[in-house]
Write a structure and sequence with these properties.
This protein is of the alpha+beta class and 263 residues long. The protein is globular. The termini are far apart. The strands form 4 sheets. Strands 2, 3, 4, 5, 6 and 19 form a 6-stranded antiparallel beta sheet that branches. Strands 9, 12, 13, 14, 15 and 16 form a 6-stranded antiparallel beta sheet that branches. The protein has 3 helices and 19 strands. It has helices at 2-28, 34-45, 147-158, and strands at 48-52, 61-62, 68-72, 77-87, 90-98, 105-110, 116-120, 123-128, 135-136, 161-165, 171-172, 174-175, 181-182, 190-198, 201-210, 216-222, 228-232, 235-240, 253-256. It has one domain (34-262).
Length: 263
């Protein structure tokens, strides 16, 4: 009796095996979820090393979390992520991941006034020339002493800017009302990054700095290959021409095809 039960059990297991194997294969072939996609991009960005050339102890620190998980229905992008590298708590370089499969890309822009060297796997990838130019922000009140009040001031000052993307077909970008990054309390200066977005996809970054000498300054950085025009109080202050994916030379803006896109 027990032998019969044993043989029957083996038979059922053999018959069931293709079904179980098929279920496992289906699991492996499931489309990557946004959560899995974001985790993989984080691991890829952790493979990069960035160094400020003119500074001692110059290796930049990658912040552990994405500043902004985004999507852009107008371009068919269902998921994207933004990461930042800092030095002494201040932003130095920003990166954006977007696309899937062979279309996956890593997009970088320097937020430093110094040159930055990029490495991956021990090999030098690029030398970023200085990526921002600080300008005094006129008609702004003195920075408040309280950090919370300075945040309110930062939001009001950011609202003075307007970003237009494109040449023939122009579109105004929407400003996210909260900064995507703000330097920690212990930093020498209070610096915040405001994103101007299409959908929730960042196309331009505004850097605001409440300086230690009691004034405000600002800088602007592109987050797109498309042309940008930026206005302050209705007057154009900066223009970025459209560029190819690889601006070449030592450009502050660079788009790379990561190894994952070649698999």
């Amino acid at each position: 009796m027990s032998s019969l039960i044993y043989l029957t059990t083996i038979g059922i297991a053999i018959l069931a095996w293709p079904v179980l194997a098929g279920a496992q294969n289906d699991e492996l072939n499931q489309p990557q979820t946004p959560k899995d996609w974001l985790q993989q991009r984080k691991l890829e960005f952790e493979e990069y090393r960035f160094h400020v050339e003119a500074a001692q102890s110059s290796t930049l620190t990658m912040e552990s979390r994405s500043l902004l998980n985004w999507s852009n229905a107008e371009r068919g992008a269902d998921v994207g992520a933004v990461y930042i590298w800092t030095r002494k708590g201040l932003p130095q370089l920003i990166a954006c991941a977007f696309g899937r499969g062979k279309l996956l890309r890593h997009e970088f822009h320097s937020l430093s006034t110094e040159s930055i060297t990029a490495e991956r796997g021990g090999a030098t990838l690029h030398r970023f020339q200085p990526g921002i130019e600080w300008r005094n922000l006129s008609s702004a009140p003195p920075p408040a002493k309280a950090r919370a009040l300075r945040l309110v001031q930062m939001r009001r000052q950011a609202e003075r800017f307007r970003v237009i993307m494109g040449n023939k077909e122009r579109a105004e970008m929407r400003m996210l009302t909260q900064p995507v990054f703000r330097s920690p309390v212990e930093s020498d200066e209070d610096v915040a990054l405001f994103a101007f977005v299409q959908g929730t996809d960042p196309e331009c970054m505004l850097v605001l700095d409440a300086t230690t000498d009691g004034t405000w300054r600002y800088a602007l950085a592109r987050q797109t290959k498309w042309a940008l025009k930026i206005e302050l109080d209705g007057q154009q202050v900066t223009e970025f021409a459209s560029v190819g994916r690889n601006a070449g030379g030592q450009a502050p803006f660079l788009v790379l095809k990561p190894p994952a896109a070649e698999e």
